[in-house]
Amino acid sequence: MKNFICAVGLLGIAGLTWANVPTKTKPQPVNVAKRVSKAAAAVPANVAAVPEPELSAEHLALAQRVVTGKVPCELGAHVAITAHHAVPGKFVLEHGRQKFHMVPVVTATGAIRLEDAAGGAVWLQLGNKSMLMDQKQGRRLADVCMNADQVLVAQALEKTPAASILDPVEPSAATASAVVSANK
């Protein structure tokens, strides 16, 4: 008790109060998102936005084949694809609370591929289904997304599946007669 009274007396002599005594505090975490949004808000409105690069004729032709609208996916998810309001050939894809600005990419297989390089998202549109993938995390965000046309293609593939490259090939009559004449 003597120590407490002495400490209070010393504080009184020094002119300090308990409120003025420094205490150790933990540093508060920095909210980077708030700082970025404040910095973005600080940009004057009269500053012109960076112009979007124009897409080639091949990219624009590919963009004509992209199916837009709300597409239902497995597990009750959905993806909404709309054409960009200002840039022809560019699309806005929404999945839940995520929004991606997609650009068509030419593929060797003929599949329709849209990419958001900044967001790391890829939308693949095949004949029988579509899927949304996250390249950064290496996982699918939405799978078995099908519009009305893709449902019809999927049903047709179930009835008559495409031939596998592993299936044995039946020789045609012309091929068989050519083999027989070559062996004579």
How would you portray this structure in words?
With 184 residues, this protein is an alpha+beta fold. It has a domain of 103 residues: Beta Barrel (Lipocalin), CATH 2.40.128. It is 29% helix and 24% strand. The chain has five helices and eight strands, in the order H-H-H-E-E-E-E-E-E-E-E-H-H. Strands 1-2-3-4-5-6-7-8 form an eight-stranded antiparallel β-sheet. A hairpin with a 4-residue loop joins strand 5 and strand 6. About 7% of the residues have low confidence.
Give average pLDDT, whole number: 75
Q: Total number of helical segments?
A: 5
Give me the side-by-side strand order of the main sheet.
1-2-3-4-5-6-7-8
Q: Strand tally, please?
A: 8
> Which CATH class of the domain at 57-159 applies here?
Mainly Beta
Major sheet, described briefly?
8 strands, antiparallel
Corresponding CATH architecture of the domain at 57-159: Beta Barrel
Shape: globular
Instruction: Please state the structural category.
Output: alpha+beta
CATH topology of the domain at 57-159, by name, is Lipocalin
Order of helices and strands: HHHEEEEEEEEHH
Terminal CA distance reads 120 Å
Q: Helical residue percent?
A: 25-40%
